[in-house]
UniProtKB/TrEMBL annotation:
It comes from Thermobispora bispora (strain ATCC 19993 / DSM 43833 / CBS 139.67 / JCM 10125 / KCTC 9307 / NBRC 14880 / R51). It catalyses: (2S,6S)-2,6-diaminopimelate = meso-2,6-diaminopimelate. The record marks H155, E203 as: Could be important to modulate the pK values of the two catalytic cysteine residues. This is Diaminopimelate epimerase. Its main location: cytoplasm. Pfam families: DAP_epimerase (PF01678). The gene is dapF. It is found in: Cytoplasm. The lineage of its organism: Bacteria, Bacillati, Actinomycetota, Actinomycetes, Streptosporangiales. Catalyzes the stereoinversion of LL-2,6-diaminopimelate (L,L-DAP) to meso-diaminopimelate (meso-DAP), a precursor of L-lysine and an essential component of the bacterial peptidoglycan. GO terms for cellular component: cytosol. Pathway: Amino-acid biosynthesis; L-lysine biosynthesis via DAP pathway; DL-2,6-diaminopimelate from LL-2,6-diaminopimelate: step 1/1. GO terms for biological process: lysine biosynthetic process via diaminopimelate. Its EC number is 5.1.1.7. Keywords: Amino-acid biosynthesis, Cytoplasm, Isomerase, Lysine biosynthesis. Homodimer.
Amino acid sequence: MRFVKGHGTENDFVIIPDPEGRLELSPETVAAICDRRTGIGGDGVLRVVPTARCPEVADQAGEAEWFMDYRNADGSLAEMCGNGVRVFARYLVDAGLAAPGEFGVATRAGVRRVRIAAEGDVTVDMGRPRVLGESRTAVDGREYQGLGVSMGNPHLACLIEDPVAGLDLSRPPRFDAAVFPDGVNVELFNLTGDHRVTMRVYERGSGETRSCGTGAVATAVAAARAVGEETGTWAVRVPGGVVTVTLDATTSWLTGPAVLVASGEIPAVL
């Protein structure tokens, strides 16, 4: 099985090309691939498969030739991944499967339009955030109030006074399962300046990651509301770098780097 390794602000993925749509990736196989000691290592797997060959998203084939079949590091399915879409688009262009410019990528949360040049940052139309209301989480022995935001996948973005750098995110945050029956990605963030925040995230199915694209947008939504705004451009600093989120009246945009770093073959024993 061929693979390519890539990352967006150090949120890293193993890309598996499957142009014939024949691969069956079990949760156990995905978890073995993502293992950082005995596998390739990654926060998730991006299977590259023609949209028309996947019944679950075949209705998107008219808008997007390729489907980003995203799996979390534990093998569970995920609806969307903002950093993953950027890395996926960079792979399509570098592999000659798409031309630089603008094109659609099929996801379980719907088609996401990307803008990409031959090199440099990638911008994704992330869709209109859907505010779910307030809820609470418990992290490192402390409770925090947050704003629930759906980006196709669920988030709880919490503006906190404690410095995010000092939090222990080695264990899953507690949350209200009645509000988030399918689990939730939890973001903790500090306001650090004019339209600037610092964020850390615990992703369901992956644990703490160095960055989360959908989480960055959810954080920007929560930060904007905290200062009495609904639109604007925010710089979101994560442990892996900085991404830019633009909120307008109809949608949201995520801009940041996408880098491919290695390629090879995965042995059958994995």
